[in-house]
Amino acid sequence: MPNNSVKLGLKAIVALTSDADTFDGIATFEIVFGGGMSLQQIMFYGKAEIVSPKISAITAKFSKNIADRLNKLPLTKGQVDAQDSQATNNPQNSILASLFLSMNFEDGFELQGTFRCKLMAAQGVITGEGSIDLLLSQP
């Protein structure tokens, strides 16, 4: 969505995979400059799936088509949280992780972050889930 306060925005997206099909992920970096080329915001977000090599042949993978994956990238923290929650609900013998970090310099300094991880191993015998939310703000 266009924003009149943004004069220049850069976005870099990297797909992360391993040769053995045991790691799959995507990472995105965004930087936004406003009027006078002042730094407004820096964001880093992504998600990863680490799958046990013994079951990688039968475990569902992320899409291998990068265009499909780019169309599903979250744009806001709310969308990030919703997609990450849905993506980490039913892992099988895998570790799923997602990360969102945003630094905003428009009205002072604000650092916002979310990290979520879910582990399910040994056919569901070992399970765990955790998340961390962070908000630092200085006007």
Description:
With 139 residues, this protein is mainly beta. It has 2 helices and 6 strands; from the N terminus they run βββααβββ. Strands 1-2-3-4-5-6 form a 6-stranded antiparallel β-sheet. The longest helix has 11 residues. About 9% of the residues have low confidence.
Please outline the helices and strands.
Elements: E1 8-17, E2 23-33, E3 39-51, H1 66-71, H2 77-87, E4 94-104, E5 109-121, E6 126-138
Antiparallel strand pairs: 1-2, 2-3, 3-4, 4-5, 5-6
Find the count of extended strands (DSSP E, 2+ residues): 6
Helix-strand pattern: EEEHHEEE
Mean pLDDT value? 77
Number of helices: 2
Characterize the overall form: elongated
Structural class computed from helices and strand pairing: mainly beta
Describe the largest sheet: 6 strands, antiparallel
Strand content is over 45%
Helix content: 10-25%
Q: What labels would you give this structure?
A:
139 residues, mainly beta, six-stranded antiparallel β-sheet, 6 strands, 51% strand, elongated
